[in-house]
Write a structure and sequence with these properties.
Length: about 110
């Protein structure tokens, strides 16, 4: 779950970074600062996924990513896509961890 979540957050951070380059020509300084802070927080949160608080912070940041759509309108759609990827990473990650735990428990019984 941690690897999937971290990959979503890092890719989201990179995509937001490229969107900031688009916002430089059309938006005010506020939009660029907002995007830069969110981009940095997404990247740092990927390292916090070792704890459960990292997933809560990542979930809250998803709202702010969609909010970046007020500066770059395409990010309303991109934000929705990344929210779906974030949810999929959590759901699939939990299933993968449960399957791994079952395999470890099964191997422990046979030994």
């Amino acid at each position: 779950m941690r690897v999937l979540g971290a990959s979503v957050l890092v890719m989201e951070s990179l995509t937001l970074g490229f969107a900031i380059l688009l916002a430089i020509k059309n938006q005010s300084t506020l939009g660029i600062i907002y995007g830069s802070i969110i981009c940095l927080l997404l990247f740092l949160t990927a390292g916090l996924l070792k704890r459960s608080s990292g997933f809560y912070i990542g979930s809250i940041l998803q709202i702010f990513v969609i909010g970046f759509g007020f500066f770059v309108s395409a990010f309303f759609i991109m934000g929705a896509v990344f929210v779906a990827l974030w949810a999929a990473a959590i759901i699939v990650g939990r299933k993968g961890e449960a399957a791994r735990a079952a395999l470890v428990a099964q191997a422990g019984v046979k030994a």
